Amino acid sequence: xxxxxxxxxxxxxxxxxxxxxxxxxxxxxxxxxxxxxxxxxxxxxxxxxxxxxxxxxxxxxxxxxxxxxxxxxxxxxxxxxxxxxxxxxxxxxxxxxxxxxxxxxxxxxxxxxxxxxxxxxxxxxxxxxxxxxxxxxxxxxxxxxxxxxxxxxxxxxxxxxxxxxxxxxxxxxxxxxxxxxxxxxxxxxxxxxxxxxxxxxxxxxxxxxxxxxxxxxxxxxxxxxxxxxxxxxxxxxxxxxxxxxxxxxxxxxxxxxxxxxxxxxxxxxxxxxxxxxxxxxxxxxxxxxxxxxxxxxxxxxxxxxxxxxxxxxxxxxxxxxxxxxxxxxxxxxxxxxxxxxxxxxxxxxxxxxxxxxxxxxx
Length: 362
Ligand code: SF4
Ligand code: SF4
Prior knowledge:
The protein is an alpha+beta fold. It has helices at 10-14, 21-29, 34-40, 53-59, 61-64, 66-79, 93-102, 154-157, 163-189, 206-212, 254-261, 263-267, 290-300, 306-310, 312-315, 319-323, 329-343; strands at 107-112, 144-151, 194-197, 217-218, 224-225, 233-240, 273-280, 283-288.
């Protein structure tokens, strides 16, 4: 097993300034990444949205202040003191799941945390929270992760890679933070320390935890693919020292299904997705050209999302068939054919949504 290190992630790497000590150190160890990363360094992808200035001035503020809300929520959660401890049995898991849904989660699973769940070091991605944490060692100690999904707006995702996709993504990140903050404060209120991961500060990568918590399987897109909403979700997780009954990973046959489907790979405008498996800490992911993906973000001015839109599970598949598709390639073929007949290679919608449609604009 190897520990994850947030400093190895693309966003952390390209956030480093050239010729600093940290920069030199990183690329001494990873010289093969230097040239590729240098092309992405310092590029602010939103500025490249292919819209006029009027559009940008009117609609960028829909999301640009989200980080302020997330900062406030983070501080609320961090500053809330742990109260007198109540006795809670492990079977309180069921209640915790319902509470998390009550706060706004789409689905919830619970898994345990161990040494290898956490990043070893922070990657310096928390500037918007006013935190400078590059190189800081991550302290561990929470026992349980309550992992949840927030469904994104499908009409917006079906406009990917255009601006509406960004609206869906940013809205989901804010909801992740809202749900996580309320849950962490609830846990502290009943006497158990808790930490809410949010898009500006993670203690762990969340896809492996979501997989362990039985929320879905890892698809060729390297996203968690859920049965009901595909990868049209964002993930949140609250870590706590309350011990709870845990869930198990599920297997509805996605690994095999992805081999027949490959729609995310076929549709990816950057050819960033591959079918080549990559094992990370016992879980199967896929090799991925992350710099090519980020290049596309810079070109489109959004975080693209075409892979999310392309997934049959995102668009909705026959649930009864999916329940029985494992080890049944014929049924998998039927599901894919039904999807293609209904949506084609991808369910792209060109027409702008009313929220960003300007009368008289072409
Ligand atoms: S976000 Fe776009 S460019 Fe990146 S992997 Fe998905 S489809 Fe490809
Ligand atoms: S689009 Fe197809 S290949 Fe890609 S993750 Fe979804 S099911 Fe798997």
